[in-house]
Amino acid sequence: MAGNSGGSGSAADRPWWILYLSLLVAGLLLIADGFHVAHLHRWTAKLGIALAYSAFVLFVGEGRTLAVVSAGLVCSAVLATFLW
To answer: Which among 30, 36, 51, 83 has the fewest CB atoms less than 10 Å away?
Structure first.
């Protein structure tokens, strides 16, 4: 295939969609907090979203660095909703 070198650093080894999905989830959490969505005012709902999404990302990403960064991104967005 064109553009696929087949080496250890190929694009297939890096699931970038995990990072994009994490940015989307984190953004939606912050927007929902800004608009005071009633279902997300409970701290258990926020933590549940962060834990479920982190488990999904780490399972799909097979513990790669990109998956850990993506899980950390969503967890930091949840922490930001508690601080501000």
So the answer is: 83
